[in-house]
Every structure is written in structure tokens, then in C-alpha cells.
TrEMBL record:
Keywords: Signal. This is Beta-lactamase class A catalytic domain-containing protein. The keyword Signal applies. It comes from Actinomadura napierensis. The keyword Transport does not apply. Gene3D superfamilies: 3.10.450.280, DD-peptidase/beta-lactamase superfamily.
Length: 442
């Protein structure tokens, strides 16, 4: 249910047609390699960039950097060279983000195209996962990519004008609702901001973690012992920045489900019928991950007005009885829903609130994680992000303010009720979202 963290959880299988290549190790990294026996993913990404400028790749150099099975999948050194020649040479647009085993960065390639390059490494430090996706360079290319990515796609890029009106710059089924995944947490953040404005709570109000309100990942708060105390602002930061499900559920319980449901209207959601009753993540997990499909079928058989009465029973399902699922399960009926138009209204509403006295927590939570979009902060000093996912669902939603004061929102919603998406769908969707922002800002 968390696209934000998945953007750096790169596929471990090398994708044929991705771009990779190599040459001798750059001099600036030689000393580091001598002191560090195992190169990091960042080292290997640097090597790929350098190699893109020194083709072709030798067999020895390819074997020194790419795991054998992955190298074979790409057709050896010749295949790497051919793939990279089609998209390089690469020039970094900004510093890449990396950990020991994962790296991701935006680059300018051939014909001034923008490319997202991701690298994963194994225990040996050799490349085991490598993927490159091109950013659409026009609205026509963007539409074609959306149709390729998913059988159901809703997309729109908006510019927010005077009075907070979301004007569609370009869209595809912009007013068609789709399942949101964790992007529903925007409404929880809105409910918290409303409670703060009314003086019911403050961003510094404390709340202990309760075992009964814990959920499953994404997130980390489920690992904290009961009684651990955080402020509501900290819960909001966890909920938005790493899509912490336990944080979201604690806020829903603290604020009340009715308050979050009311927030759907306050933040302009015109497609909220499927959002009632508003589920916690634990309740959704119980419906889809414990006794499925019988429990889910019983819930869906209830008239909608009676489903709220079933929620305490879902809360009682032990987390130990919930198991992950790999294929889509009832994504059109057990989820949270909105259209791109609703996401623009929500982000615009939150943007308005963030500017009010006493509401710094809204912007702080939404600014921590840029969702991998990698926009130049000189050109885009403000970037907000919230995404979401589960099998068969990917959503990405961004608000970006340009240095000239224009406010742009992009929403990408992909769904497939029959088949789970491949491991690279998040990266392809990210390239679409970034294109939406930059095409609108021209």
C-alpha cells in the first residue's frame, strides 16, 4: 500500500531493453573501491554513467560490474553496449539517491531526453537489477504510455489558478474515479488539520501507540512497543512521508471515522460513495488477507449503510492471521476512491490550509518525501507527494510550485482488477507524472 518506498525497492531481475553499460572505473572512485571491498549501488550507477561515455564495453569490464545471470539476460557486454548506445550518453540532472543496494537518478540522454535509471546490487556488490525508463516528451507520448501501462488509467495535469480553481491542462479520464491505495491518507491529514483549526487538538498533542490500533507495513510504527508516545504531528509525518499504515490508523481512531468521512466533502471529493464507511488499513487488510474471499463477500453482501457495524469485527482479527496477497482482490469495491480531479481539489485545499496560522504540519508532512520525482528545486521550490499501491493499483499525486509562482498538480491513477502489475510499473508511472509537471510548466 505504499508507492513511496517501492520507488526505491528496485526489481532484482535485470530487465531486457533497459540501459546499462560499462568501461573502466572512474579515477575518482578507485580509492573508494580499494578501501571498500563491496561497491554500493551508487558506485555502480556512477560506473554506468561513466560507461555510457566510453562505449563499447569490454567483456572483462562487464563481468566486473554485472552479475553473471543479469549479464546473460542482457546479451553480454555487446547487449549492454547496444542498449546504452540507444539512450546515452548520460548526464545527471541532479545527484542520485542511493543506499548500499539501491540507487535511482534522473539523467539527460540522447536527443536531450529525460531518463530514470535505477540500479540494484546484491551481496557481492555486482549489479543484479537495472532498469531505465524514458520520460514522455509530449502529451501524445504520455497518452500512449498510459494506454500501454494499464487497462484502466485516469490521468490529469492541472494548473491551480486564482480562487483555487483546478484547470485541466491535459487529461485522460480525468474525472473517472480509481482506487487510491494509500493516497487516501491525504484526507486523514486534512481531518487532522481541521481538528487543529477548531482547537480540538494541536500538532504537539501526544498519543501513545496502541496494540489494538497497529496495522501491517508499509511503515515502521507497528514495530514500536505499545505505550510509545508520539505527537500527532509526528504521526502525520510518518503517515505521509513513508506511508505508515499504523500511523494512519491511529489518527483515524483519534480523530474519528466520521471526521475523516466529512473531510472527503471538505476537500472536494465528488466520487466518495465507495469511501463509506471509511476503512482503516487494518480493516482493509482483514477483509483481503484473512479468510478471503468469504469474509470479503459477507462484507460486500451487506447494504452499504450497514457495513459500518461490521468494522469492529474486522478490528478483532489478529494481525497474525493476515497474509499478503499477490494478485488484485476486490480493488473496485474494497478500497478508497477518487478521480484525478478530486486529488487536485484535495491538494489545493491542503495547500490553502498550510498557509494559515498554526498549520505548519500540513506542508511539513507533504514536503518530506518527493516521491522520486527529482525536480530541480531552483525551478520548483515546493514539491508535495502522496502515492499509494496494492496489487493491481498504483497512484501517484504531486503538487509542484514553480519559481514563477505557478502551482501544478499531476495525478496518475492506474488499475487492473485482474492482474498484478510488474515490478517496474512504479518507475514507469513516475516518468509519466514527471512529464506531466514539466510539460505543463513550459
Amino acid at each position: 500500500m505504499n508507492t513511496a518506498t517501492r520507488l526505491l525497492a528496485l526489481a532484482t531481475a535485470l530487465v531486457t531493453g533497459a540501459t546499462a553499460c560499462s568501461t573502466s572505473v572512474p579515477a575518482e572512485h578507485t580509492a573508494a573501491r580499494e578501501t571498500a571491498a563491496v561497491p554500493t549501488a551508487g558506485d555502480q550507477l556512477d560506473w554506468i554513467v561513466s560507461a555510457s561515455r566510453h562505449l563499447p564495453i569490454s567483456d572483462a569490464d562487464a563481468k566486473a560490474h554485472v552479475a553473471a545471470s543479469s549479464l546473460t539476460a542482457l546479451g553480454g557486454a555487446a547487449g549492454l553496449s547496444k542498449a546504452l548506445a540507444q539512450s546515452g550518453p548520460l548526464t545527471a540532472q541532479e545527484p542520485a539517491k542511493s543506499s548500499k543496494t539501491q540507487a535511482i537518478g534522473w539523467f539527460t540522454g540522447a536527443h536531450r531526453s529525460s531518463l530514470l535509471v535505477t540500479v540494484a546490487t546484491g551481496a557481492s556488490g555486482l549489479i543484479t537489477g537495472l532498469y531505465l525508463t524514458g520520460q514522455p516528451g509530449s502529451w501524445k507520448e504520455l497518452d500512449a504510455e498510459l494506454r500501454r501501462l494499464a487497462p484502466r488509467a485516469s490521468f490529469a495535469t492541472f494548473e491551480i489558478g486564482a480562487g483555487g480553481r483546478c484547470r485541466v491542462v491535459h487529461g485522460m479520464h480525468a474525472d473517472t474515479p480509481r482506487p487510491l491505495g494509500s493516497a487516501f491518507k491525504l484526507y486523514v491529514l486534512g481531518a487532522l488539520s481541521d481538528a487543529v483549526a477548531r482547537g480540538k487538538v494541536s500538532w504537539n498533542t501526544t498519543m501513545p501507540i496502541k496494540d489494538a490500533w497497529k496495522s501491517l507495513p508499509s511503515g515502521t510504527l507497528q514495530n514500536k512497543p505499545a505505550g510509545t508516545t508520539l505527537t500527532l504531528g509526528q504521526y502525520a509525518d510518518y503517515m505521509i512521508s513513508i506511508s505508515d499504515n499504523t500511523a494512519a490508523d491511529h489518527l483515524i481512531h483519534r480523530l474519528g471515522r466520521a471526521a475523516v468521512e466529512a473531510e472527503l466533502t471538505r476537500l472536494g471529493n465528488r466520487h466518495q460513495r465507495g469511501d463509506h464507511p471509511f476503512l482503516t488499513t487494518r480493516q482493509m487488510f482483514a477483509l483481503k488477507g484473512a479468510g478471503y474471499p468469504a469474509r470479503a463477500d459477507r462484507y460486500l453482501a451487506l447494504p452499504q449503510r450497514k457495513r459500518a457495524a461490521a468494522l469492529p469485527g474486522l478490528d478483532a482479527v489478529p494481525l497474525s492471521q493476515i497474509t499478503p496477497w499477490q494478485q488484485p482482490r476486490d480493488i473496485d469495491s474494497i478500497e478508497w476512491f477518487a478521480a484525478p480531479t478530486d486529488m487536485c481539489a484535495a491538494l489545493d485545499g491542503l495547500d490553502d490550509r498550510s498557509a494559515r496560522p498554526g498549520q505548519p504540519g500540513v506542508g511539513e508532512a507533504l514536503s518530506i518525501n518527493d516521491g522520486g520525482i527529482g525536480l530541480d528545486r531552483a525551478a520548483y521550490p515546493k514539491v508535495w507527494f502522496k502515492g499509494g499501491s496494492e496489487p493491481g493499483v498504483v497512484t501517484l499525486n504531486y503538487l509542484a510550485r514553480t519559481s514563477r509562482g505557478r502551482t501544478i498538480v499531476t495525478s496518475v491513477m492506474l488499475s487492473d482488477p485482474k492482474t498484478a502489475f510488474t515490478g517496474t510499473i512504479d518507475l514507469d508511472a513516475l516518468a509519466v507524472a514527471r512529464a506531466g509537471v514539466q510539460l505543463a510548466a513550459r
